[in-house]
Batch of 2 targets.
Target 1
Amino acid sequence: MLKELEHIKQGMLDAGYICDDNAATVLFLAQALSKPVLVEGPAGVGKTSIAQAFSNMKNIPLVRLQCYEGIDEAKAMYEWNYKKQLLHIQAVSNQSLNVTEVEKQIFSEEFLLTRPLLQVITSETQTCLLIDEIDKVDFEFEAMLLELLSEFQITLPELGTIKARHIPYVFLTSNATRELSEALKRRCLFLYLDFPSPAMEESILRLKIPALKQDLARQVAESLQEIRKLELKKTPSIAESIDWALALVSMGIMELDRQVIVKTLNVLLKYQEDIDLAKARIPGPAPRVSPMVQ
Amino acid sequence: MGSIFETIQVFIRDLRDCGIPIGSSQLEDCYRAISLVNWSHEPVFYSALLSTLLKDSALLPIFNEIYMRHFHPHPGNPAKRLGALQEMMPELPANQKGHGDGSEAVGDSGQSGKPVPRGRSSKAPTREWKDPFSQDFYSLTPQDLKRMENLIPLLAKRLVSKTVIKRRREESGALDHRRTLRQSMATGGVPVEIFVKKRIRQKPVIFALCDVSLSCLHFSAFSLALVYSLEKFFRHVRCFAFIGETEEVTALMRKEQPYNLRAQVLYDTKVTGESGRTDYGRSLLTFYERYGQDLSHKSYVLIFGDARSNWFPTEPQILKQIQDRVKRVYWFNPETVNEWNTGDSSMSNYRKYCDKVFQTSNLDELIKALAEL
């Protein structure tokens, strides 16, 4: 079993994602138990990318459903193509067809617009489904997802129940802005992603930006540790630290010092208050963050 | 050392004791998961338990604490111990297959095993089960208090989602003719989709008055923590503490966790007044004198307290003046209704001038009351 974990870690690494033991175990269990994974954590720690990397690793298509307030079945599952149906009725109106026949015609798959969820269920090959920011949806929609997540099937009133040909791998991400229903949570495996340790962040940076020198990567990772300790409105996450490192590399900077940090803070922090606070708190002039460059 | 079933069962019961909801299907998942993974590597065992039993990051600290207590007693070599445990349970997958329901499987194997193995667990079953949600604010031990503090992030989230639903329902207003008609053009004049206008509501300013005398302290602290969780629905939240006099503590609350209220307020302010005893009349008076000019028709005044005024004059007319100036006055009383107006409680005097009074003697009731804001 440990070998399989190593296998997953290596596979994810090849797909551009560094997994720790916890994430790898959950991915392993998700496959073994055929259960959806609910990924929670602060914004920008790689909740969405874990699904992307997983689909890359498995070499299967990723179907993404971006949730937002007010999303409904029509946007997520399926919709009847009203306009096409109306046109069709007009077109056949001079042919003397009886009503049931026309009804049968206009409620066939030809007039069905498939949306991400139906697409996953009817797919010929196995797919990976990413339901992004599930905490944004309404409660009705959340309840509707239950059938999909536990039985991997969808019921359409006009066509009946459609069962998935291949059980998809499902990832749900949540920023924990509100509590999800117990029923939904019970059906999922839980994975909490937090800000990474300095060592992990360093290796992520090195993986994402090959041109980044090791010393600089370490300095970046260490300064981020310090910055995250501040009481900020928006704590910078991995996405921001990659941006920052990329900016440093393209500026041709070899070593991080106070001046450089202050100059480039706006890449890392998105609020003026945060930038002011960080400026005030970054200690002394000289290379405080790089004591181990030897 | 007992069978692994018992060990995990005790572990799960401790989790449930702390308010972490675990259903029987989760138990089944948990057993299936741990039978699949290799325990000699501790992080793997930990993740298997975590991913199947816990579903909310707000409860992660509680989970970790309990996990450490159960499976991490010898920091030197936890791996060895878990490895040894796994060797003792080769029959798990077979055992598990026979049962449809996870909880049944657990119950059976727990009883068929040796009589209770460890000191902890032999005490545990007889321990009285206390639901932290329905526990009286007056009967809290320090452990209960800690447990409830741990639950606050979860409750806060619950409260927010409740409020969001309510707001959304109230939001939909009259029919938006223009949009509906415009959209109906696409479907040949048939209004297939109906659009409604959204109602815009004004965010109120909250004035929270907390009795921080010994009798109401815990209650006030929890209430404040929860009021703060709703901050985004309000324009502004201002807090005031009183015993014998009222003083603003908003700035203090910015720095401190609400449940540190008890230590901080008494230390930093002069709320005790001259007598050092709870005096609702004087407190209301000082509140109105010092901060009355800030009250407006957009303000909500929330009072958290038991209305026990030590026979000092209660000055209900001040509350009436406050009520005249603000939109709503709500009173949250931690005593049950039949204790109101007994002894030195003067709830009936104040009640006349409140838009609503709530009995909030435990967390459940408090949540329900606050959801009405």
Target 2
Amino acid sequence: MSQRAPWEEQRKLLVKLEEETDPALGCPPTKRPQHLRFGLINVDKPSGPSSHEVVAWVKRMLRLKHAGHGGTLETFTRSEQSDGHGRASSSP
Amino acid sequence: MVTGVLPLALEDATKTIQAFLLTGKEYVCLMALHGDVEEKKVREVLDEFVGDILQRPPVRAAVRRDVRKRRIYYIRDVEIDAREVLFRVGCQAGTYIRKLVYDVGEVLGVGAHMRELRRTRAGSFTEEGSLTLYDLMQLSEAGSDQKEAIARRMVKPMEAAFEYVPRIYIRDSAVSSICHGAELAVPGVVRFSEGIVPKMSIALFTLKDELVALSKALMSSEQMLKEDHGIAAKTVRVIMPVETYPRLWKTKTVTVPAQS
């Protein structure tokens, strides 16, 4: 793995063979009719609800069967919530 | 409090989550020092934390508390105001920033804690393109005539999460067998990212840029270029529905001898 962040790195494509795709098969992602079924939403999580609660809300709002999030953004536990006083009671 | 970019996968795209849990993250962090330290010293110590660090997950963590190696890609935009230090950090998935701040405090000798944290990037998702819960409410409350247009604007195809994931583009004729769980053989390979090494997590795409499956590479990019046959990648998770591309391989017909 390189020292640089993946988004600051250019990865070239190597070509093994020249090949065409049949336009009758499949569908480019941006033209896909079922965009919710294979979709992602980039949510700006507010402070307060947990990542899981945000997923549950969005699921209900959009009437989805399944949804999941990529990477928990922790909410502070109770002992850490009151900034300043909390430090004494929180673990390191 | 912790806020910021939280990518959500919907319906069938939920299967791709394991891939974007592994993507790098970027945060803006507000660190509070517990004593006075020279500005220069703070900057020096922050710089020392760039590169590979060893980190034991915090007591309250969702993972086993073994020391593990994590990479800090960069720490930049450092602003210091007395005991408050603001900085931007790019890191590998699974890095605990709360812990990083604590460790910086230990090295500085005065102690420190994380006051605020905001995630500004998760893989290819950045703050700029993110939607608030109010934006989403607008979508859920829209009439059926506008709903489609709004949803199209807000919902990205799952392929958007794979911008930085190494990949192999495969032939139309190989798609169906991959969807049935087969391994990818070299003759099905069309183009691929440079820098792939065996065991790397990669993604398989059609020539129309549709995600087919998540795979594990069995060959390096150099080998794939050179070899004429052999298995290039093992399918880990099929994402595309089986019926999307037609099945083109032949099955052996077994003739059962008539019993006499």
